[in-house]
Amino acid sequence: KIVVLGSINMDLIARCHALPLAGQTLTATGFQQIRGGKGANQAVAASLVGSSVRMLGRVGEDGLAASLIDELKQDGVHCSQVLPTPNVSSGLAMITVSDDAENQIVVIPGANAHVDAATVDQFADVISMGDVLLLQLEIPLPAVLRAKEIAQAAGVRVILDPAPIPATPLPADLFEVDLICPNETEALEIVGRHAKQNATAAQPQEITAWQNVAEQLHQQGSRNVIITLGKQGVLFFDGNQHQHLSAQPVDAIDTTCAGDAFAGALAAKWAATNDLIKAIEFGNQIAALSTTATGLTALRTE
Ligand code: ADP
């Protein structure tokens, strides 16, 4: 059983020839409404690869709430702990994509911003009964920390995908989890900030340079560290040994949900087998598959 605490959004995507300038009104050439949010995406990915998944979070009291929950249920995710929240909108992302694939995104946290420690306390029993708790940083930090505390007291494994990195300082004990799985940018931001360096550290190009970053992340308290390296695959460090898994060769057309597909599939396999290496291989395969169609569509058709 996987428990996911996190964000649930509706992405409103307008396609335009160019991005609008300040004060300009443009006519879109296309529109799509797609359920998003890192928490919800990871819950769906874990469910689509066969896990029993419970989503914990909040939606607003608006026209979008019902479709968000319906779509999650259609993907097999249990939603009885997704709470309606009075007087706020559901989480929204307003996205404009231009013909040359530039984008502009405004995220409205809405109900996601109301997931606090008291909300998480209501979910304590559900969290304690899971095999794996999967967390991201698209809801307020106190909720993330409280969920981690409840899970760890109950002996539930905790995976943290530290994305997106908030502007506020990150408490040191946030990283004391069983597994952390940042992408390259996030890994550098965490290491940079804790080392009190400038977070704009030069991007290491070589796998060996990433090994050094993984070791620094491990020192911050995470038992196992994975850095996802896009089309270079993933790097895994368990505190003793490094392992690099190349990405599966695919014709990638949309990598937007690759990180979420990876985290969800990894959590699913880890809960099912207790074999972390197998879980990482599986995550790496499913993440590659996810890039062959938009969003998580490729996982639905398998
Ligand atoms: P994020 O989407 O969070 O930025 P990455 O870009 O690192 O994360 O992608 C996550 C994982 O998705 C990678 O570790 C890899 O397994 C897979 N992946 C991403 N891009 C590709 C690609 N072009 N070909 C194959 N696999 C990919």
Automatic annotation (TrEMBL):
Subcellular location as annotated: Cytoplasm
Active-site residues per Swiss-Prot or TrEMBL entry: D260
Gene3D superfamilies referenced in this protein's UniProt entry, alphabetically: 3.40.1190.20
UniProt keyword annotations, A-Z: ATP-binding, Carbohydrate metabolism, Cytoplasm, Kinase, Magnesium, Metal-binding, Nucleotide-binding, Potassium, Transferase
GO biological process: D-ribose catabolic process
UniProt-annotated binding residues for ATP: N183, T228, L229, G230, K231, Q232, G233, G259, D260, N284
One Pfam family recorded for the sequence: PfkB
Enzyme class: transferase
Carbohydrate kinase PfkB domain boundaries: 1-298
Required co-factors: Mg(2+)
Residue positions binding substrate: N9, M10, D11, G37, K38, G39, A40, N41, E138, D260
Keyword Nucleotide-binding attached: yes
Cofactor: binding details: Requires a divalent cation, most likely magnesium in vivo, as an electrophilic catalyst to aid phosphoryl group transfer. It is the chelate of the metal and the nucleotide that is the actual substrate.
CDD domains: ribokinase
Binding site for K(+): D254, T256, S290, A293, G295
GO molecular function: ATP binding; metal ion binding; ribokinase activity
Recorded GO CC terms: cytosol
Pathway(s) per entry: Carbohydrate metabolism; D-ribose degradation; D-ribose 5-phosphate from beta-D-ribopyranose: step 2/2
EC code(s) of this entry: 2.7.1.15
Function text: Catalyzes the phosphorylation of ribose at O-5 in a reaction requiring ATP and magnesium. The resulting D-ribose-5-phosphate can then be used either for sythesis of nucleotides, histidine, and tryptophan, or as a component of the pentose phosphate pathway.
Family named by the database record: Belongs to the carbohydrate kinase PfkB family. Ribokinase subfamily.
PANTHER family for this protein: RIBOKINASE, SUGAR KINASE
Protein name as it appears in the record: Ribokinase
